[in-house]
């Protein structure tokens, strides 16, 4: 895994961009025997042309990689984010927008969100 401690994009200044000393470029990912998981990372922040979001890539053997993003429900930057706005179907937009709430018992102000990922199943359309 490559860790640049900054999001490398042509508009961020690339290698000259300021590094975040608090970001270790690591996430903690644990899966259970029934597929549940916990992922722990830093809280995403907005940058000039994007709302805060978390990237995810999942690869199953023999399947095409799933790449997605999750946005923070109710964040004012969502309405200005070109990718989020580009999702025209309200149900699809809702599927990539998650509610972050205070984590019960946290003394650090941590947040938690539920993000279900289903691979290999075609959902029925209602």
Structure commentary:
By secondary structure, the chain is mostly beta strands. It folds into two domains: 1-42, no CATH class; 47-117, Aromatic compound dioxygenase (Protocatechuate 3,4-Dioxygenase, subunit A). The protein contains two helices and seven strands; from the N terminus they run ββββααβββ. Strands 3-4-5 form a three-stranded mixed β-sheet. The chain has a two-stranded antiparallel ribbon with strand order 1-2. A hairpin with an 8-residue loop joins β6 (101-102) and β7. It is globular and about 35 Å long.
Give keywords:
single chain; 126 residues; mainly beta; Protocatechuate 3,4-Dioxygenase, subunit A; 2 domains; 3-stranded mixed β-sheet; two-stranded antiparallel sheet; 21% strand; disordered N terminus
What is this structure's SSE topology?
Layout: E1 28-31, E2 37-40, E3 53-58, E4 66-72, H1 82-86, H2 90-95, E5 97-98, E6 101-102, E7 111-112
